[in-house]
Amino acid sequence: MRGGSDIQLKRKVRLVLEAAAAKKAEDPVALDLRKIASFTDCFVICSGAQSRQTQAICDAIVQTLRDKGVRPGHVEGYDRGDWILIDLSDVIIHIFTRETREFYNLERLWGDAPEIEPETSETRRKRGASAVRKG
What are the structural domain ranges in the chain? Predict the structure, then answer.
């Protein structure tokens, strides 16, 4: 799953991280699971101070993705808000309260996974410039 799919994944991760940041999500991280898991390509993990904030983060992510034509397959845990999971199939988003994130510590559990650097306007500009040079 390289080339265009890799770029598409990075764009999706960027959209998720930007939506989460708009609601002041804490310590966001995107883990590349393509070489170590068969059920998804990426985890995005972030947290909020309390359940109302995690719900707001979830709402922002879902709305941002819907605006781009991406609908989550499944959302779990919204009512309680301590661990909300948004399943996009290729990206699974975990939104925790601080305490719940500390308890489950998915970053340690998936410690072999490298972080994904989401595509930004700067990386798109660089890629465009290198394509012009090659052409």
Answer: 4-134
Distance CA 80, CA 19 (A): 21
H-helix segments, the chain: 4-22, 51-67, 98-104, 106-109, 121-134
pLDDT digits (tens, 9 = 90+) for 72-130: 889 999 999 999 999 999 999 999 999 999 999 999 999 899 999 876 555 455 545 54
CA distance 33 to 54: 23
The predicted-structure confidence for 47-80, as pLDDT tens digits, reads as follows 999 999 999 999 999 999 999 999 888 999 999 9
pTM score: 0.83
Question: What architecture is the 4-134 domain classified under in CATH?
Answer: 2-Layer Sandwich (3.30)
Q: Please, is 59 exposed, middle or buried when counting C-beta atoms within 10 Å of its C-beta (0-12, 13-18, 19+)?
A: middle
